[in-house]
Amino acid sequence: MIIPALAQNEENNHAGRYESEGGQSLTADLTHLSGNRYSVEISTTVPISGERPGCGGGLKGEIAIEADAGTLSIPNEGFIASEAESVLNSKLCKVNFKFSDKYTLQIEEGSGCTFYHGASCSFDGTLVHEASGI
Predict the structure, then answer these.
(1) Contact 123, 110 (CB under 8 A)
(2) What pLDDT digit, counting tens, does each position of 83-116 carry?
(3) 20: closest CA among 39, 38, 46, 52?
(4) Most CB within 10 Å of its CB: which of 28, 85, 99, 116?
């Protein structure tokens, strides 16, 4: 019996590498763990350009994807417990994932993530699966 190398079962249809197109380099690597659970690594880089400083960073964690959406929530290592909680001083770094089709992933940073990438970067963008051009 021959099984095609690219075949994936339905619960594993989000695994792979997703990349942005344009100025900010933004990537998300999703590895299927089991059921609807995935390990995810996000990386962002903005190159230095003229007067604008560059930046970069990343994070990793686990996410549950249901109905083509999920939220990655990890402890914010920059959280200062002695200060009031706010958008910039949140206990958690949250990044929302939404798949608009088989190859397109929209990610949007919620709050508490500046510690992981600096002030000039973000985890916001539209990413395309590396296999979209096959």
Answers:
(1) no
(2) 999 877 899 999 999 999 889 999 999 888 988 9
(3) 46
(4) 28
Query: C-alpha distances in angstroms, 97 versus 6, 49, 51, 57, 75?
Result: 23, 29, 32, 18, 17
Alpha carbons 89 and 53: distance in angstroms, whole number:
23
Q: Which residues pair with 69 in a beta bridge?
A: 66, 98
Structure tokens at 125: 């963008």
Nearest Cα to Cα of residue 62 among 39, 42, 41: 39
Helix (H, G, I), strand (E, B) or coil at 86: coil
Model pTM above 0.85? no
CB-based burial label for 39 (10 Å; 0-12, 13-18, 19+): middle
